[in-house]
């Protein structure tokens, strides 16, 4: 049988194989919906890194932590107050006008 030459024939460098290889490269670089969700959650501080673990075989495990429940207004205030020195908090309560 005669073998044809050109971009659409042959085993090495055929048009179909090049197109297939290019698609595989694109697919390997594409992010999955789960990966996009994790990136978005990290970027918006919905998830935080709790731990980075490396074992003796150099395997890396990253533990993420987050909460899907929205914080109430009171919880937000308590978070702000908990960062203040205790004496300042007591003084603020004692000097509060009613």
List the helices and strands and how they pair.
Blueprint: H1 15-29, H2 33-43, E1 47-54, E2 60-66, H3 73-82, H4 86-94
Antiparallel strand pairs: 1-2
Question: What does the model show?
Answer:
- The chain has helices at residues 15-29, 33-43, 73-82, 86-94, and strands spanning 47-54, 60-66.
- The protein is α+β, with helices and mostly antiparallel strands and 98 residues long.
- The protein folds into 2 domains: 1-30, no CATH class; 31-94, no CATH class.
- Strands 1-2 form a two-stranded antiparallel ribbon.
- Strand 1 and strand 2 form a beta hairpin.
- The longest helix is centred in the first third of the chain and has 15 residues, at 15-29.
- The termini are far apart.
Brief account:
With about 100 residues, the protein is an alpha+beta fold.
The ordered string of helix (H) and strand (E) elements is HHEEHH
Distance between the termini: 100 Å
- Kindly give the count of domains: 2
Describe the largest sheet. 2 strands, antiparallel
Strand content: 15-25%
Give the beta-strand count: 2
Radius of gyration: 29 Å
Mean of the pLDDT scores?
80
Strand arrangement within the widest β-sheet reads: 1-2
Q: What class do helices, strands and sheet pairing give? A: alpha+beta
Shape descriptor: elongated
Regions with little confidence, pLDDT below 50 for 5+ residues: none
| Percent helix | 40-55%
Q: What's the tally of helices?
A: 4
Key descriptive features of the protein:
98 residues, alpha+beta, 2 domains, two-stranded antiparallel ribbon, 4 helices, 2 strands
């Amino acid at each position: 049988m005669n073998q044809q030459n050109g971009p659409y024939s042959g085993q090495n460098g055929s048009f179909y194989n090049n197109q297939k290889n290019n698609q595989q490269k694109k697919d390997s670089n594409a992010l999955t919906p789960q990966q996009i969700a994790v990136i978005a959650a990290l970027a918006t501080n919905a998830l935080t890194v709790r731990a980075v673990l490396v074992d003796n075989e150099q395997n890396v495990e990253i533990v993420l932590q987050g909460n899907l429940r929205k914080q109430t207004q009171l919880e937000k205030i308590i978070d702000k107050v908990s960062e203040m020195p205790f004496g300042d908090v007591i003084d603020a309560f004692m000097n509060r006008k009613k």
